[in-house]
Design brief:
The protein is α+β, with helices and mostly antiparallel strands. The protein has helices at about 20-30, 40-45, 90-105, 120-125; strands at about 1-5, 10-15, 45-55, 60-65, 70-80, 110. It has one domain (about 1-125): Aminopeptidase (3-Layer(aba) Sandwich). Helix 3 (about 90-105) crosses helix 4.
């Protein structure tokens, strides 16, 4: 499903479109230092949904939504190309992911993040909670 944002004619958000490893690797390499080429097909096959953003046909944003098969969904891999940051694209991606998770039956949306991203996720609508984490 395509969502066209009216404030920018050249920006297109899509729900669970086909994406190639090459375009995801290009986005992740630009956004995450040390990213190594990855096969994304097994990851996306287990996802509840994902949202992509394109500008001029180029992939510039991505967020994955994993689900537990029930009431809970999880935001993963929120990624915006460095050239596109600080324009609200990340917030639009996460909000579209939240809407899609709700449409697919999720009642709770979780996200883990580093402290410097707290204000970003607050602007997306998340509130802080206590959680546990174990490195495996």
């Amino acid at each position: 499903m395509m969502i066209r944002e009216s404030w920018r004619d050249d920006e297109v958000l899509e729900i669970s479109p086909e994406l190639t490893d090459a375009e995801l690797d290009e986005l992740f390499a630009a956004s995450w230092p040390g990213h190594q080429p990855t096969s994304f097909a097994p990851i996306l096959a287990r996802s509840l949904a994902w949202v992509s953003a394109r500008r001029g046909g180029r992939l510039v944003g991505f967020v994955n939504v994993a689900g537990d098969g029930g009431r809970h969904a999880f935001i993963l891999d929120t990624t915006v190309h460095p050239d596109e940051r600080r324009r609200g694209l990340g917030i639009r991606l996460v909000r579209a992911a939240a809407e899609e998770a709700r449409a697919r039956g999720a009642e709770w949306l979780h996200v883990d993040y580093e402290p410097h991203l707290e204000s970003f996720y607050a602007r997306c609508g998340f509130r802080q909670t206590a959680a546990g984490l174990m490195q495996l």
